[in-house]
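Why should sequence recovery work at all? Because a backbone constrains its sequence more than one might expect. Tight turns favour small or flexible residues, buried strands favour hydrophobic ones, and helices have their own preferences. The token representation captures these environments compactly. In the example below, the structure is given first.
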């Protein structure tokens, strides 16, 4: 599956350079421990680490989740947002395709005292997800490249297959008055994400944003709250 970027070739080249730098920085040989939003997470190699902008989504999760919500954390990674959601909700499902991430998510849920609230299992987008949810949280891969390993799979989605599949099917798994929290940035094709959301009938508002400068380039990050 190919993706035709919505930006020009110079912007694409910048994204490619940014991606290589971020990928190299994320490569480690040992577990990393993060104290994050009042909780402790252990992230093994082959699982994407918590970043300096992760809190834009994490704090939005804490602000959004209610005790009555059934929550789905799509692409859970080390389980960060599932654990945060489970500090409010008693019914959280966390899915991923990376076996290292699934093991880390289970361990981090137990480590933070919410193992009985977070149900972790393998699913390729919605392939093994049943039912409807009041809140869906998704921190998708930003880039449309082909990943070289499990670690890179967290930041690259070939041709935006997973992203496109998500928006095509999300409506079938979201309650009529449900909400979604989606994290994305301009180091990916954010206009494509907006087009997919609009085409699926979702209205988006920005609830958190932050910009950083790196390698001579400014990148903006957003948490979008989406509803029908």
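From this structural description, the recovered sequence reads:
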């Amino acid at each position: 599956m190919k993706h035709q970027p919505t930006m020009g070739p110079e912007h694409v080249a910048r994204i490619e350079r940014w991606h290589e730098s971020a990928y190299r920085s994320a490569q480690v040989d040992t577990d990393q421990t993060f104290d994050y939003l009042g909780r402790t997470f252990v992230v093994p190699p082959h699982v994407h680490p918590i970043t300096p902008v992760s809190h834009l989504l994490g704090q939005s999760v804490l602000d959004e989740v209610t005790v009555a919500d059934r929550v789905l954390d799509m692409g859970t990674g080390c389980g960060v947002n599932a654990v945060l959601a489970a500090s409010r909700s008693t019914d959280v499902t966390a899915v991923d395709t990376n076996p290292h991430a699934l093991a880390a998510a289970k361990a981090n849920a137990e480590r933070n005292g919410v193992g009985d609230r977070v149900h972790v299992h393998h699913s390729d987008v919605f392939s093994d997800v049943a039912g409807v949810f009041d809140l869906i949280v998704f921190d998708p891969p930003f880039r449309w490249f082909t990943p070289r390993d499990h670690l890179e799979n967290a930041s690259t989605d070939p041709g935006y297959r997973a992203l496109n599949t998500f928006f095509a099917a999300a409506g079938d798994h979201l309650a009529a008055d449900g909400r979604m929290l989606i994290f994305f940035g301009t180091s990916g094709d954010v206009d494509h994400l907006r087009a997919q959301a609009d085409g699926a009938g979702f209205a988006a508002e920005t609830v958190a944003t932050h910009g950083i400068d790196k390698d001579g380039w400014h990148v903006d990050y957003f948490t979008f709250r989406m509803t029908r």
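A few observations help interpret the result. Residues 71 and 195 are 24 Å apart (CA to CA).
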